[in-house]
């Protein structure tokens, strides 16, 4: 089992829909969780962090964390074509982060 | 707007040549990471430093890769000799606590 697993993509949603990206992790002691967005040919960009169980909202993005289930998700409401990218889940441990393989999202106009 | 910078942005070289990639972390960040990204392997951690001290380089092929941080404003990743399988995008990232900010990357092609 990988330390950080993301739902296999690619994921395609129509413009205006909700995109749901999921991530599970194996280390129960992990305390913080991050989502990065990577456009094709670009570097990863930090978009969300979450530390406590529950939801954290930032504009159209909502991160959800359930430590008991070792599950973190990212919801993108009112998806736009500009949201088309690969989304990476990152779980820090001992000063370094383990990244998932990413889920590629395509938002179709 | 503070950013991580990397040079060169693109490098094409021949097998057996030495390659040096440079990174300037964001001022004040105490942790610097080197990653390699390929389509097949995703984002792999090669090495990282905290306060300029190397903490983990277990992700690097030791016989050909080396990473150093000669001062707080410069991190280097060297490959000698380079091989075609080293072709990838190499990212540097810097951060505080657990957040990381990535540079634009160096796209390396080894022929």
Secondary-structure-derived class of chain A: mainly beta
Query: How many distinct helices of chain A?
Result: 0
Q: Give me the oligomer status.
A: heterodimer
Distance between the termini of chain B: 36 Å
Q: What is the overall number of helices of chain B?
A: 0
Strand count of chain A: 11
Mean pLDDT of chain A: 94
Q: How large is the radius of gyration of chain B?
A: 13 Å
* Derived structural class of chain B: mainly beta
Which percent bin holds the helix content of chain B? under 10%
Extract low-pLDDT stretches of chain A.
none
Report the order of strands and helices of chain B: EEEEEEEEEEE
- Please tell me what the overall shape of chain A is: globular
Largest sheet of chain B: 7 strands, mixed
Main sheet overview of chain A: 6 strands, mixed
What's the total number of strands of chain B?
11
Overall mean confidence score, pLDDT of chain B: 95
The helix/strand order of chain A is EEEEEEEEEEE
- The percent range for helix content of chain A is under 10%
Largest interface in this structure: A-B, 19 and 18 residues
Layout: helices, strands, pairs:
The complex is a heterodimer of chains A (109) and B (111).
Chain A: E1 4-6, E2 11-14, E3 19-25, E4 33-38, E5 45-50, E6 54-58, E7 61-66, E8 71-76, E9 85-93, E10 96-99, E11 103-108
Parallel strand pairs in A: 2-11
Antiparallel strand pairs in A: 1-3, 3-8, 4-5, 4-9, 6-7, 7-8, 9-10, 9-11
Chain B: E1 5-7, E2 10-13, E3 19-24, E4 31-38, E5 42-50, E6 53-56, E7 65-71, E8 74-79, E9 88-95, E10 101-102, E11 106-110
Parallel strand pairs in B: 2-11
Antiparallel strand pairs in B: 1-3, 3-8, 4-5, 4-9, 5-6, 7-8, 9-10, 9-11
Which features does this protein show?
heterodimer; A: 109 residues; mainly beta; 6-stranded mixed β-sheet; 5-stranded antiparallel β-sheet; 11 strands; 0% helix; globular; B: 111 residues; 7-stranded mixed β-sheet; 4-stranded antiparallel β-sheet
Question: Could you describe the 3D structure shown?
Answer:
The complex is a heterodimer of chains A (about 110) and B (about 110). Chain A has strands spanning about 5, 10-15, 20-25, 35-40, 45-50, 55-60, 60-65, 70-75, 85-95, 95-100, 105-109. Chain A is about 0% helix and about 55% strand. Chain A has about 110 residues and is mainly beta. The mean pLDDT of chain A is about 95. Chain A contains no helices and 11 strands. Chain B is about 0% helix and about 55% strand. Chain B has strands at about 5, 10-15, 20-25, 30-40, 40-50, 55, 65-70, 75-80, 90-95, 100, 105-110. In chain B, strands 2, 4, 5, 6, 9, 10 and 11 form a 7-stranded mixed sheet that branches. In chain B, a hairpin with a 2-residue loop joins strand 5 (about 40-50) and strand 6. The N and C termini of chain B lie far apart (about 35 Å). The interface between A and B is medium-sized, with 19 and 18 residues.
């Amino acid at each position: 089992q990988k330390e950080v697993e993301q739902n296999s993509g690619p994921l395609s949603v129509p413009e205006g829909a909700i995109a749901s990206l999921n991530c599970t992790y194996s280390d129960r002691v992990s305390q913080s969780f991050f989502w990065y967005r990577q456009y094709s040919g670009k570097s990863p960009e930090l978009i969300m962090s979450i530390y406590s169980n529950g939801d954290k909202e930032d504009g159209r993005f909502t991160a959800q964390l359930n430590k008991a289930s070792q599950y973190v998700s990212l919801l993108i409401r009112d998806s736009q074509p500009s949201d088309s990218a690969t989304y990476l889940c990152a779980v820090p441990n001992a000063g370094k982060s383990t990244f998932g393989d990413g889920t590629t999202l395509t938002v179709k106009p | 707007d503070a950013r991580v910078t990397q040079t060169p942005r693109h490098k094409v070289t021949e097998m057996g040549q030495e390659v040096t990639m440079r990174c300037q972390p964001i001022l004040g960040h105490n942790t610097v990471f080197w990653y390699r990204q390929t389509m097949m392997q995703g984002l792999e951690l090669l090495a990282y430093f905290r306060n300029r001290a190397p903490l983990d380089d277990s992700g690097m092929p030791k016989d050909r890769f080396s990473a150093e941080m000669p001062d707080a404003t410069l991190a280097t990743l060297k490959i000698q000799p380079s091989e075609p399988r080293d072709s990838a995008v190499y990212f540097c990232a810097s951060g505080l606590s657990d957040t990381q900010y990535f540079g634009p990357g160096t796209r390396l092609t080894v022929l």
